[in-house]
């Protein structure tokens, strides 16, 4: 069976290996790594309801504009009409824009000599998936969801609320997102390139352009007509005043490590961690002055345990520490953040967090959590969807 015929709505299923999360309106979209996307009605955060599951082979990332959901499916970008969340349907596809990718447990790559993507052509050899595809392929890497790098070290993706620009109503992604929406464009970062898709006709995205970024590209965070792109060696800042033609302004270099970045005002918050194939020996939070985006300057570094995703709702910074839980800081004084830790919640695995003001969304290996964050010092659990829980 061709994998391209398998994108379809199915009955709700349990969370098994959650990856990225995305929120728009009352709906949550949670990636099941390499499998598809859960649509969850979150009208009542104390009692979220699974609506449907979209089967999307090779899925790792999510973005939503109005009633169109964008998702990667191995080499393809797929657009899905979610006007009726209980009956989503594929309405567009851009083929063969992503050449290879890595997921938890293995990698995949396109074979240019075979004429279709089908499940017979997908095989795992030493934890490597080979996906055969049609048409001409332009070189690129695409890493979706939670990833394993070449040495199979585990990298947990994380998120924090990411502002979106005009050009339709978009949702909120996070600090480890590889998709971003800005005006009439969808941006998708791969290992060494930035893909621009024109979405002026939302249901029919068009592959518009690519920008070479270098090596080890991991995340993208749009903010104030700029794109902040995280890599394994630093942070790139691009001027996005003209969304059709991003221009590099600067690079802030740090030691080799995996990092997401979020921005508020004139400060970028960057986490670096060990325990991944990115290498390096830092577990820290960097505050970077980006008031002059052409010349970012380190303000101060703070030691952490194993920082992952983060979200800023100034002055509150929510920082995931993986198996060490979630920390909350008051970052009003940028020179003494470590002296203003408001709370440390240790009873969860925390790798992805999105702050929505008075509500906090958190995802980890053990499930999906929602908290009343009216008092950041004392988060109150509203609901939890454990991994493996029967629906």
Strand and helix map with partners:
Blueprint: E1 8-10, E2 18-24, E3 27-32, E4 36-41, E5 49-55, E6 62-65, E7 68-73, E8 76-81, E9 89-94, E10 100-103, E11 106-111, E12 123-124, E13 128-132, E14 147-148, E15 154-155, E16 179-182, E17 185-189, E18 193-198, E19 206-212, E20 217-223, E21 226-231, E22 234-239, E23 247-253, E24 261-264, E25 267-272, E26 284-289, E27 297-303, E28 310-313, E29 316-320, E30 326-330, E31 341-345, E32 352-355, E33 359-364, E34 367-372, E35 380-386
Parallel strand pairs: 11-13
Antiparallel strand pairs: 1-5, 2-3, 3-4, 4-5, 6-7, 7-8, 8-9, 10-11, 12-13, 14-15, 16-17, 17-18, 18-19, 20-21, 21-22, 22-23, 24-25, 25-26, 26-27, 28-29, 29-30, 30-31, 32-33, 33-34, 34-35
Protein model, in words:
- With 391 residues, the chain is mainly β.
- 0% of the residues lie in helices and 47% in strands.
- The chain has a single domain, classed as Methylamine Dehydrogenase, Chain H (7 Propeller), CATH 2.130.10.
- The protein is built from no helices and 35 strands.
- The radius of gyration is 19 Å and the shape is globular.
Number of helices: 0
Helical proportion, percent range: under 10%
On the 0 to 100 scale, the average pLDDT is 83
Largest sheet: 5 strands, antiparallel
Strand order of the largest sheet: 1-5-4-3-2
C-alpha termini separation? 28 Å
Poorly predicted segments = 119-166
Rg of Cα set: 19 Å
- The total of beta strands comes to 35
Number of domains: 1
């Amino acid at each position: 069976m061709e994998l391209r015929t398998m994108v379809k709505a199915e009955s709700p299923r349990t969370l098994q290996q959650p990856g990225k999360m995305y929120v728009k309106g009352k709906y949550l979209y949670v990636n099941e790594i390499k499998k598809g996307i859960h649509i969850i009605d979150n009208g009542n955060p104390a009692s979220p309801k699974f609506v449907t599951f979209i089967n999307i082979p090779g899925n790792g990332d999510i973005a939503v504009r109005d009633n169109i959901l964008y998702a990667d499916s191995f080499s393809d970008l797929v657009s899905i009409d979610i006007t009726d969340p209980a009956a989503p349907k594929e309405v567009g596809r851009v083929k063969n824009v992503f050449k290879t990718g890595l997921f938890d447990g293995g990698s995949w790559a396109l074979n240019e000599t075979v004429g279709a993507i089908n499940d017979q052509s997908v095989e795992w050899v030493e934890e490597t998936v080979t996906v055969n595809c049609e048409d001409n392929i332009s070189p690129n890497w695409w890493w979706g969801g939670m990833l394993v790098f070449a040495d199979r070290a585990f990298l947990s993706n994380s998120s924090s609320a990411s502002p979106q620009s005009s050009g339709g109503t978009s949702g909120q992604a996070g600090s480890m997102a590889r998709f971003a929406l800005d005006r009439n464009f969808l941006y998708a970062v791969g290992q060494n390139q930035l893909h621009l898709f024109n979405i002026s006709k939302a249901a029919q995205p068009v592959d518009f352009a690519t920008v070479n970024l270098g090596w080890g590209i991991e995340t993208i965070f749009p903010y104030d007509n700029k794109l902040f792109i995280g890599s394994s060696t630093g942070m790139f800042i691009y001027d996005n005043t003209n969304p059709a033609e991003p221009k590099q302004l600067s690079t802030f270099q740090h030691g080799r490590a995996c990092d997401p970045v979020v921005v508020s005002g004139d400060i970028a918050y960057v986490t670096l961690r060990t325990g991944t194939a990115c290498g390096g020996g830092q577990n820290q939070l960097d505050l970077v002055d980006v008031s002059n985006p052409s010349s970012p300057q380190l303000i101060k570094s703070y030691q952490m345990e194993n920082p992952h995703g983060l979200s800023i709702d100034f002055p509150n910074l929510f920082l995931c520490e993986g198996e060490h839980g979630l920390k909350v800081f008051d970052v009003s004084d940028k020179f003494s953040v470590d002296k203003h830790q408001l709370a440390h919640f240790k009873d969860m695995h925390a790798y992805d967090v999105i702050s929505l003001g008075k509500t906090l969304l958190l995802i980890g290996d053990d499930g999906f959590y929602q908290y009343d964050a009216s008092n950041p010092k004392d988060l109150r659990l509203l609901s939890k969807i454990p991994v493996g829980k029967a629906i």
